[in-house]
Task: structure prediction
Amino acid sequence: MSKKVMLIDGSSLIFRAFFALPNLTNADGVMTNGVYGFLTMYFRAVEEYKPDYILVAFDKKTKTFRHKEFEDYKANRDKAPNELNYQFGILKDILDSLNVKYLDIDGYEADDIVGTFSTIAKEEGLETVIITGDKDYFQLVNDKVVVFLTRKGISQMEEITVKSIEDDYGLSPKQLIDVKGLMGDKSDNIPGVDGIGEKTAIKFIKKYGSMEGLYENLDDIKGKKTKENLENSKQIAFLSKKIGTIVTNAPVGMKISELKVKEPDLDSLREKFSKYNFNKFMEKFEDTSEERKDEIEFSYSFSDDFSIIDDIEKDGVFYFKSIFEEDNYIHSNAYKIAIKTSSSKTYIYNPDEKFVEKFKKYFEADNIKKVSFDIKEDIVLFDKLGINISLPYDDTMLMHYLIDPSRSSYDLKTFSQAFLKYEVENEEDLLGKGKSKKSYKDLDSDNLGKYLASIVNAIEDSLDILTQKLEELSMYDLYKDCEIKLSKVLADMEITGFICDKNELEKIKDEVSLELGDLEKIIYELAGSEFNINSPKQLSKILFEDLKLPIIKKTKTGYSTNAQVLEKLRKKHPIIEKIERYREMYKLKSTYLESLEECIDEDGRIRSTFKQNVTATGRLSSTEPNLQNLPIRTEEGRKIRKAFKADDGKVLIDADYSQIELRVLAHLANDKKMQEAFSKDIDIHTKTASEVFSTPIDEVTKLQRSEAKAVNFGIIYGISDYGLSQNLNIPRKRAKEYIENYLDTYPEIKKYMKDIVKKAKEDGYVNTIFNRRRYVPEINSKNFNVRSFGERVALNTPIQGTAADIIKFAMINSYQNLQKAKIDAKIVLQIHDEIIIEASKKDLEKAKEILKSSMQDAVDLKVPLLVDIDSGESMYESK
Result:
């Protein structure tokens, strides 16, 4: 069998990976998605095709001979974003450690390098595999050259052979150059012949064999316009063919023998993969070693052997994880529990009475550390066993979240890929998903045992790495004092739940359904016919064809009927207001009333899942259902809060920070005017209106205060003059004046905004006052929109993130102080800046006092933290 050469278009693959994958960053905020995707495709190709020689070709960032032939070659292409450009250097650095040759040449492109080496390889009797995302390479295919074209992001490759080209096009690979000469290539700005597309070009080349053959028989062309275009564009057509032809004799200055596959520099590779969180790739080089086999063949046993307790007592720390059967741990029971120590194998137990009897004291001990991944799950599950998991404990998932807060998920697989030399399967890999998802009970004991052993070993192996990283980033205190303690508070909230009165929901739903029925009749009458009001297509026909209303916005499928369009049409016809009201009521019914009913447990309580690892700013989120998003803007929406009640003999207490984000801004910017207003308890919006509009404070109008409020909060989110003009429905020029006057009024805020953006550009990240870090790779983008987004993130995150940290500390304080006071009161909900507790009526005043002081004393700022507090039988009454 002849030896094989693998030629890779590095520019094509890294470009495809960059746009196919989400923003991946390492712990230092360096974007790595392009490199990660390239390496994924590279290793897959190497394993599948087992080449003897490898070369990665790159485009050079200089003009080529094609630009000399045609100045506008690729002139329509946008410059590659900076976030991609610097990844080329990272990739080349890793290729050096892999001992893989790469090449770029002045005046030539990657495909010319590949074309030249594929030609040399054929002359030497070698087979060639080309890996690319570019169809231009099809012209190189022959009996010794095969192209593998990347498809569907980075996950699939399609084999292109002489036969497949003949089957698909009815042409030889070389004839595809003629097709390109005729049809051109918009992506490369190659003009071709006007009016000739791929279908016509293929037809001509099939019939005449080549462009030369076509032009020799031009008189045979029947279409007058086509013939005319061909005559007028002959020179351009042959120029297009020349530009589109891959060079096969570029000055590569290298022999095939120099591309021979070599062993990588493992030490250098390990260092680089660790730096960029690519540890999963090291498996490919270490799997064959005896040491590696020992690492991944984790020992375990299913037994009633409790000898591990001796190791727990000796070590003072153990690693564990529980698994459950249902989709949501809150409504499930533990199925198996895996435990290990540094000196023991993994023991897998059934969560029975014997387990509780033996381990309860160790999970509740204050002198033994427990380490898990997503320990909040375990706290909730163990509560059903009568075990109260107590501090000290560590959560490697929360550690990962703080280090890399912009990830879309934090499962064990991505976790192990980032920090370990081996990869742990996640639940989806093991059980599947959707209708075909298996149960843990369906697994044989060997697969289940290996899975659980890999989990607890990964937890153990990563703890020191994560701890060190948090210390390096100055975030260990935030983890220890805030996030890890908060997991206990959130678990208790999930266990407790919040009473939701089904009868009250039904009552509100009946009222809404009645109004929806009345609205339907009125809308049908105004429209002149019945139709599906919820169908944008049918509504579009009624508004713009039947009622002849002016078209505001076109879409691919017709005319838009979104909220912004309806708002602009509101005064044009009475039907619009009724449709807006119908949509509002329909959403209330379907999104809230009906879905909330389905979430009520048998004891009448809703148990939402509270997540602390979702938002990059540190804000908490609530899911299944989302209780942080209950409607409040309309009276009908607010009525839903009547259903959320305190138990018999109890009352709800609702405490809300007053303008916390503006207070944080005053602290961060050290703005004396704003600090003075807060210290003297002057209404900040009235104060701002007075300053911005040069109006005595006692003469500020409601409109001026409202506009000042919009500016105050807009500044926090980096609002533009356009955004403010839309919010206030004022001319953009006036909105710009408002912002300029505001920044002149508060010069320290203006300086702070400028400084924080500058620092973010230099560092690549921003911090809260508690050192929570958020990376902002977008801030140095050459793309204006991307860069503007990055600047808004840089402005907003320290403010919103600090406010989120404060509410977390307040929750911890409130939870601990309520427990110390030994009163009947529990936190049942947190909504952004407010905390809601359920307390017995006899403890009402004491609970209010504790909650208010816990929130106001949560942290020390340069301005006081004020809390508005109220109580009532329901959320409706307590707010």
Residues 784-821 form the longest helix (38 residues).
